[in-house]
Every structure is written in C-alpha cells, then in structure tokens.
C-alpha cells in the first residue's frame, strides 16, 4: 500500500539485491536483525487463500430494508463468566479501550460464550484473539450471523468464492500503489458504513496473510465512549442536540471512477451526533471522519468547525486509542457503534490480506437519561473524573 523500510528478498523481486539473511550474517548479527528491515514472504500460485482473494463483480442489489435487531450482548453475563472460563489469560491494553484474550477458540463457542463476547465487545470497544487457526471464513460468518443479519458492502471487494457476498476483503499486494498521499490522517479514521440506516455493531476482521512482526500494517481503534467523556459538560449537551449527515456518495464516486460497479445506490442518512449503546447504556460520540459531511441545522461555518474539532479529537486523543500489531491468524472483534478505527501505512511491499464480517444493528438513538462510561465507572470504582477546566496555569516539563 505504501513504501516502507523493507528489504525485498531475491526470490520475490527482479531487483538485483543481496539475500538479507546472508548480508545479516556477514556482519555477525546472531539475531539476524537490521533496524527497520524485514523479510518479504514469497507467495506463489499455491497461495492457500486464493478463493478469498478480491473480486469486484458486475452485479447490483436493491436498497436495504429495515431489519429487526436483538442485541445478544443483552443476554451476556455481567462478569463474562462463560467466555472467560476457557481463557488462559485476559488483559486490557489501556483503561479506556481494548482487551486481549488467550485460550479461547472462536470457532467453538457456546451460545452463552457468544453472548458474553458480545457484551465484552460492547463494553471494551475492541477485543483481540491470537492465532485463531480453526476460525475460517465459514466459522467467521456463522458467528457474525449469530449476532445479526450480515451486511453486504456496496463497493468494496468480496471473495472470489461464490456465496460470500457478505464478506469484505482487504487486500494489498506486493505491487499495489502507494496511496498515503491520497488521504489526510484524520480521513482514514472511520467506523464502517455509518451512512446506512442501521449501521453495523459487532464486526470481526481476521488477518490471513500479513507483514512479519515489525513490518507494519497495524490497526488503531479509538473509543467514542472516551471521546464523549473528553468533552466539557456544555459541549456534551450541545452535541447531544445535533445530528450529522453520513454519506456514501464519495465512496461510490471513487468506485465509479475506477470503473467498478456500485452494487447498491449510495445513501445519505442523518444520525444523532451522540448515541446510546443498548448493552452498556453508555453515551458515545457517533462521529465518523470518513463519512460525516455536514452537521444539520447549523451554519456551514459552524458545521465545518465542529467537524474539524471532532476530527482532531478522534485522531489525536491518545488516551482513547489502542494499537494492535497483527500476526497471521489474529482476529479483532469490535463494536462499530463505539469505535472508530484506522489502518496504518508503511508495510509495502508485504502482502496484507484480511477478511471482515459485520452484522446490521439498531438505528442509532440517544437516550437522554443514559450515562457516560466515565460517570458509571466513577460511581462503581471511585475513579476520579477528569478535570475539564483548561484555564489553569500549567508548567509542562518533559
């Protein structure tokens, strides 16, 4: 996707270059280590995920119609006891977002464990599982279907294998162009297809093939619970009164300019700028740097400033972010209602291949009586709330 500091092995490229292993040994490095350089894996015609490589079929679908949604997280145990009974380790990345679980096989969960998983995802925003060998695309779809009706994307790639139209393929090959100059860093932050009337909730991404450790391609998630909590009470109330337009038009335009079929006509939908999660009952910002185009009911200047401010909040609020370094077979499961996420560049010429499955959820709503994450955790554990008065004297030394 974008050039990085990598050394291409001789069997992968026509460029005349020394074999990296040989060159490393010649300098006496017993760990075969050179800063910022990683071996590029060769992929030949026997690539085992050939049926999951991307295609863009010339087909069209009708507009989506409303579906009933029953959130499985509401059935989960408050302490996640069924899911965690099988775990060998569980830990949070940071207090606001992100949890990793070891010892759990996603392909063989009981319904009670699935309900706990949904509840944990809604609570923590994103949950990570390593080396899920048994969790193939059929198992991934089956778990997604347990949570709700699967969403089929109108423009992105789907697998070559027929019958997987509800699977989104992420694929960057060895010869893919460098696209980093095409996007601002804030624009890359997004939650998926929020322009739909019923945007997704539980979303899974499995990396099939990717860069080795240190080769780049990490994904970042940002908690919108935490983004809401970072605002002053006055700003919270103001944003709660607003709705935002989420548009698919730019995405569809780009597909058409590339000569690809837009399988479903693009839509623009108004959603509340602050929403309530039905599982946790917590308020979160519901803002998407990638798809929000306007704030409804305010002058354009005001709208532009709100969007710019929230872009900055999402992209730079490091306490609300978690970064995940993938290994092959790893799975991330997140609540698309709660988190924005962003890919990262710098892994070319490594191949990066992943498959995503998500289910349609409820239409976003705001319950004015709902609490924030910070409010509830402060009450439950006595955690002090953040000071939001920025007018004091500061002496920053670092």
UniProtKB/TrEMBL annotation:
GO terms for cellular component: cytoplasm. Its cofactor is Fe(2+). This is Alpha-ketoglutarate-dependent taurine dioxygenase. It comes from Bimuria novae-zelandiae CBS 107.79. The keyword Iron applies. Belongs to the TfdA dioxygenase family. Residues 91-357 form the TauD/TfdA-like domain. One of its GO terms (molecular function) is 2-oxoglutarate-dependent dioxygenase activity. Residues 367-398 are annotated as: Disordered. Keywords: Dioxygenase, Iron, Metal-binding, Oxidoreductase. PANTHER family: ALPHA-KETOGLUTARATE-DEPENDENT SULFONATE DIOXYGENASE, ALPHA-KETOGLUTARATE-DEPENDENT SULFONATE DIOXYGENASE-RELATED. The keyword Isomerase does not apply. Gene3D superfamilies: Clavaminate synthase-like.
């Amino acid at each position: 996707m974008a050039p990085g500091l990598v050394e291409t092995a001789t069997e992968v490229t026509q460029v005349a270059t020394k074999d990296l292993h040989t060159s490393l040994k010649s300098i006496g490095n017993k760990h075969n280590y050179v800063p910022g350089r990683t071996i590029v894996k060769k992929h030949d015609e026997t690539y085992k995920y050939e049926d999951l490589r991307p295609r863009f079929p010339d087909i069209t679908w009708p507009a989506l119609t409303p579906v009933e949604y029953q959130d499985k997280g509401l059935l989960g145990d408050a302490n996640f006891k069924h899911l965690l009974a099988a775990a060998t380790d569980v830990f949070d990345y940071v207090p606001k977002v992100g949890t990793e679980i070891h010892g759990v096989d996603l392909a063989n969960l009981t319904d009670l464990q699935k309900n706990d998983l949904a509840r944990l995802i809604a609570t923590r925003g994103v949950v990570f599982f390593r080396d899920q060998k048994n969790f193939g695309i059929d198992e991934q779809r089956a778990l997604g279907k347990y949570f709700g009706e699967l969403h089929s994307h109108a423009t992105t790639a789907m697998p070559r294998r027929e019958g997987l139209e509800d699977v989104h393929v992420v694929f960057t090959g060895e010869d893919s162009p460098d696209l980093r100059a095409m996007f601002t860093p804030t624009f890359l932050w997004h939650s998926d297809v929020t322009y739909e009337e019923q945007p997704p909730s539980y979303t899974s991404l499995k990396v099939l093939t990717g860069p080795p450790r240190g080769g780049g391609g990490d994904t970042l998630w940002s908690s919108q619970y935490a983004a809401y909590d970072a605002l002053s009470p006055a700003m919270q109330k103001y944003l709660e009164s607003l709705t935002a337009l989420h548009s698919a038009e730019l995405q569809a335009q780009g597909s058409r300019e590339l000569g690809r079929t837009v399988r479903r006509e693009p839509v623009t939908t108004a959603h509340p700028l602050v929403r309530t999660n039905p599982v946790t009952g917590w308020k979160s910002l519901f803002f998407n740097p990638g798809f929000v185009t306007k704030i409804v009911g305010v002058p354009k200047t005001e709208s532009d400033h709100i969007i710019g401010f929230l872009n900055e909040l999402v992209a730079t609020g490091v306490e609300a972010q978690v970064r995940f370094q993938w290994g092959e077979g790893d799975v991330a499961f997140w609540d698309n209602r709660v988190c924005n996420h962003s890919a990262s560049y710098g892994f070319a010429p490594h191949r990066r291949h992943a498959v995503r499955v998500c289910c349609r959820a409820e239409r976003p709503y705001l319950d004015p009586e709902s609490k924030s994450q910070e409010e509830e955790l402060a009450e439950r554990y006595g955690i002090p709330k953040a000071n939001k008065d920025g007018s004091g004297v500061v002496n920053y030394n670092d």
